[in-house]
Amino acid sequence: MSPGISLPSPAKLNLFLHIVGRRPDGYHELQTLFQFLEYGDELSFTLTPDQPGVRLASSIPNVPDNDNLVIRAAKALMTLSDKGLPGVTITIDKRLPMGGGLGGGSSNAATTLLGLNHLWNLGLSNDELAGIGLTLGADVPVFVRGHAAFGEGVGEKLTNANPPQDWFVVIKPACNLNTGKIFSEQGLTRNTPRIKIAPAFEGDASRYRNDCEGVVRKLYPEVNQSLEWLSKFGPARLTGTGACIFGRFPTESAARIIWESKPSGVTGFVAKGVNISPLHKKLAELK
Ligand SMILES: C[C@](O)(CO)[C@H](O)COP(=O)(O)OP(=O)(O)OC[C@H]1O[C@@H](n2ccc(N)nc2=O)[C@H](O)[C@@H]1O
Ligand SMILES: Nc1ncnc2c1ncn2[C@@H]1O[C@H](COP(=O)(O)OP(=O)(O)OP(=O)(O)O)[C@@H](O)[C@H]1O
């Protein structure tokens, strides 16, 4: 049996997302609050000393392996090392909807960076891994660092935060949504005044919003309908550029009661918000 490990690749929520400006390269400057969910994909890494290189046990639908963030992250690490590294087969057990604003691809990239740093004994620091992660996507660094955080810039300037670890009902409306398209919409709010990060948010993200919500609601009636339904029970909001939305509840049972009353055909899940990533909890157990 070849040595290997299995690691969680959790989802994130943007508890709020403000667009505060635009950089000369067209990217939007954000202020956001990231929290992890105790729910996500699972990645398994099996070393294959007799077979060099990195490969997926099976492909993800509609994502060529060379574009898969897992392969891109593994290759980025491989090129950094001059050691003869053993090959690895990576299995992705996907639970997170893709293109849902839950950061599944970015989280998979971060789990790969941390998992292979561990398995290959590369000794890279989380700062170094976050730097590599940023070249793969703006949301990768927060998953690498593994602590709930305020994100600024495009989300890479991180300040640790401790929002309440509530329970969430997450709904995936039946539409697929493209981040680039939402950020290029004319009607998008791009001038929300910057807020002072600490301690203004302490414990209460409910007075903040997601600036993408207006255009997403207009373009995707499915998102609008889901938000209308979920907001009957408390504040409900979009995560990232959507399409997923979430409602916050103080207890698991409160969240489950609402989940059980969902209209037929609605998909999603119930999960706890956590300030330390499940990935980092698992890695700490392995040390
Ligand atoms: C929406 C968030 O999930 C919030 O956490 C992230 O900001 C998404 O960041 P990301 O994963 O880097 O997004 P991508 O899917 O690579 O971005 C697709 C496209 O959206 C636009 N984009 C993305 C992020 C950003 N801050 N400003 C942008 O204008 C860019 O045109 C980019 O080419
Ligand atoms: N391992 C992967 N898992 C999911 N998507 C991947 C992966 N590798 C590449 N991708 C590509 O990335 C796109 C975005 O996927 P992801 O699940 O990260 O979306 P998201 O939840 O909207 O992320 P974000 O909140 O960062 O915008 C997918 O549509 C897919 O083409």
TrEMBL record:
Annotated ranges, domain GHMP kinase N-terminal: 68-146
Signal peptide annotation: none
Annotated pathway: Isoprenoid biosynthesis; isopentenyl diphosphate biosynthesis via DXP pathway; isopentenyl diphosphate from 1-deoxy-D-xylulose 5-phosphate: step 3/6
InterPro entries in the cross-refs: GHMP_kinase_C_dom, GHMP_kinase_C_sf, GHMP_kinase_N_dom, IspE, Ribosomal_Su5_D2-typ_SF, Ribsml_uS5_D2-typ_fold_subgr
GO process annotations (BP): isopentenyl diphosphate biosynthetic process, methylerythritol 4-phosphate pathway; terpenoid biosynthetic process
Cell inner membrane listed as a keyword: no
Occurrences of domain GHMP kinase C-terminal (ranges): 210-259
Catalytic site: K12, D139
GO MF annotation, one: 4-(cytidine 5'-diphospho)-2-C-methyl-D-erythritol kinase activity
Reactions that this protein is recorded to catalyse: 4-CDP-2-C-methyl-D-erythritol + ATP = 4-CDP-2-C-methyl-D-erythritol 2-phosphate + ADP + H(+)
Top-level taxon in the UniProt lineage: Bacteria
Record keyword Protease present: no
A Pfam family it matches: GHMP_kinases_C
Residues reported in the UniProt entry to bind ATP: P97, M98, G99, G100, G101, L102, G103, G104, G105, S106, S107
UniProt EC number: 2.7.1.148
Keywords: ATP-binding, Isoprene biosynthesis, Kinase, Nucleotide-binding, Transferase
Classification via PANTHER family: 4-DIPHOSPHOCYTIDYL-2-C-METHYL-D-ERYTHRITOL KINASE, CHLOROPLASTIC
Family from the record: Belongs to the GHMP kinase family. IspE subfamily.
Function comment: Catalyzes the phosphorylation of the position 2 hydroxy group of 4-diphosphocytidyl-2C-methyl-D-erythritol.
Protein name listed in UniProt: 4-diphosphocytidyl-2-C-methyl-D-erythritol kinase
